[in-house]
Amino acid sequence: MTTDAVEEVTAVYHLLVRYAVETSPISILEEIVPIGITVYGDTVLSSESLKRLLDAAPVGVEQSEAAVKEVLEKTLNKKDIDGVFNETVESRRSHLCIERRRFKEHFERDGSADWVKGVDNVSLASIDLLTVTLYYPVPGGV
After folding, report:
1. Left (φ > 0), alpha (ψ -120 to 50) or beta: where does 140 sit?
2. Per-residue pLDDT tens for 29-78?
3. Do residues 97 and 122 touch, judged by C-beta distance below 8 A?
4. How far apart (Å, rounded) are the C-alpha atoms in residues 85 and 29?
5. What percent of the chain has pLDDT over 90?
6. Are 116 and 101 in contact (CB under 8 A)?
7. Main-chain dihedrals φ then ψ at residue 75, nearest 5 degrees
8. Distance CA 3, CA 138 (A)
9. 80's torsion region: left (phi>0), alpha (psi -120 to 50) or beta?
10. Could you tell me the pTM of the whole model?
11. What is the spatial distance between Cα 87 and Cα 83, in angstroms, rounded to a whole number?
12. Are the C-beta atoms of 33 and 25 separated by less than 8 Å?
């Protein structure tokens, strides 16, 4: 997609992340986690920049098939991409644990906490790459 929301070619990876929750029985929590990274650099987009990009409107400029294939190959073979994925997923897991701990504490105060035992013990189960979307800047700007 060509858009004026980026200044350089950027890839947005969408990961399907599964977490195991230590309830009884163990439950699975799934989320789709987007990660934006510049293709010709290693800049990971902030959550605000990523949201703006995901909400961006396309501009009617098409890329050639050969250009897209070249960029996609670079995107999928990016050095240490697994490290970026793992770091982002771990950050999200930590955030989930904090949210769930608050949730659990609320019910413990009410005296009805038996059913929430373990709800805040979240561990990574798996990560799958679902999609990659390439965002191109408008040639010459708009």
Report:
1. left
2. 999 999 999 999 989 999 999 999 999 999 988 888 998 999 999 999 99
3. yes
4. 18
5. 68
6. no
7. -65, -45
8. 6
9. left
10. 0.86
11. 6
12. no
Which amino acid makes up residue 15?
A: L
Q: Tally the residues of the chain.
A: 142
Q: How far, rounded to the nearest angstrom, does the alpha carbon of residue 106 sit from its chain's CA centroid?
A: 28
Q: For residue 46, how far is the Cα from the chain centroid? A: 11
Q: Exposed/middle/buried for 113, CB within 10 Å: 0-12, 13-18, 19+?
A: middle
Residue type, 21: V
What tokens appear for 61 in the block? 């400029």
Residues 130 and 32 sit within 8 Å (Cβ to Cβ): yes
Winning range, highest mean pLDDT, from 8-22, 88-102, 112-126: 8-22
CB 8 within 8 Å of CB 113: no
Say what the pLDDT of residue 118 is.
81
Q: How confident is the model at residue 14 (pLDDT cuts 50, 70, 90)?
A: very high
Please measure the distance between the N-terminal and C-terminal CA atoms of the chain and give it in whole angstroms: 15
The token pair at 93 is 């897991």
